[in-house]
Amino acid sequence: MGAKIQELAKRTGLKINNQNKQVGIPNRFAQGASEETLKKEQRKRDAAAGLVPFACKLPSALLVDLHSKVAKEGGDVSAMVEAALRAYLKAK
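Above: the chain sequence. Below: its structure as tokens.
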């Protein structure tokens, strides 16, 4: 004999509850909570050093070249862009 509708609904509810228990705790409440503090501290250090965020859109081919050059020479993308801008502005 088959299960009654109420029994099927109860089993489905139990399955859902068990799945929700296995999901885990989101990062904003657990280990990842300290990452936000680290980002704030990094922004404070950057501001103290006189660094300002600057966003621009670049062609993807140029970005690939930039990342490969940074990987070859080591260092930082920001430092590479800064050096290129300084060289360009000095030439003008």
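The longest helix spans residues 5-23.
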